[in-house]
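ARCHIVE CARD
SHELF: 3
SLOT: left
DATA:
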Amino acid sequence: MKIIKCRDLGFNCDFIATGSAAEADSVIQKMLVHIKEAHEGLSDEGLADIKARMSVLLSRGCGCGAL
C-alpha cells in the first residue's frame, strides 16, 4: 500500500491519496490533481519540489509517508 498525506507535503489539509505498491504513479497523479484544485497558486517550481517530496515518501519501505 502506498499513501501520501497532504500534510506530509506541508499543507494544512487532511486529503490522503492511496493505492497499491504497483500504482505508485497513480497515487502521485491523484495527489497532484488534488493539489492543483485545492491549493491553487503554486508555481511550476513549487510543483516540481512537491513531486520530488512525493517520490521520497513513496520510496520508503513502508509507504506510509512517515519521515
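SLOT: right
DATA:
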Amino acid sequence: MTKYEILYILNVDHQPKTLSTKIKKIIETNNGVIKEENIWGKRELAYKINHQLEGYYGVLICETDFINIQNLQKLKRINKDILRMLIINTNLEKNYVQSTILAATKVDEKTFVPKEHPQKFANQKFNVLIPKDAIIDPSTKILTDLNSKKEFKSKVTTSIKK
C-alpha cells in the first residue's frame, strides 16, 4: 500500500456529500484505508472553475493501491461535478508531514510587479500568495523568505492587504 494525500473540490450544486462518499468508497476498495479526513466544506473559489464561484473542499490522507488512484482519476475525467483533484504520493516526498490541518496553510496576499520585463508589465500589478514568514526590506522593497533565505526577483509595491 502506498500513502497518498488527496485534495478535492466538488460542485456545490449537485450533492457534494454523496460524491464525497463515492470518492471514499473507491479509496477503501482493495483494502484501502482512510487514515485522516478533513472536510472544509463550502468555500469561495479564487477564480471561476466550470462557471462555478464556490466549491466543496475535502482532504483525505489514505493508504491505498495505485489501481484505486487510477479509478479516482477516471472518475474525475467522467464526472464534471469534480472541479479539481490533487493526488500526492507522499512516499516520494522527502520530509513530508501528512496532516489535513497542514494542508490548509494560511498565506498573506501581497501585490508585486515582475522585475524580469519591467517595460512589459509597467502598468500592471499582480496579486500573489506569499508565505507569512517572508519579510520585505523597507529600503529596497525586496521580498526575502526566512525559511530558505532566498530573495524573490520581484519588488513588492504595496503592503499586506487587510
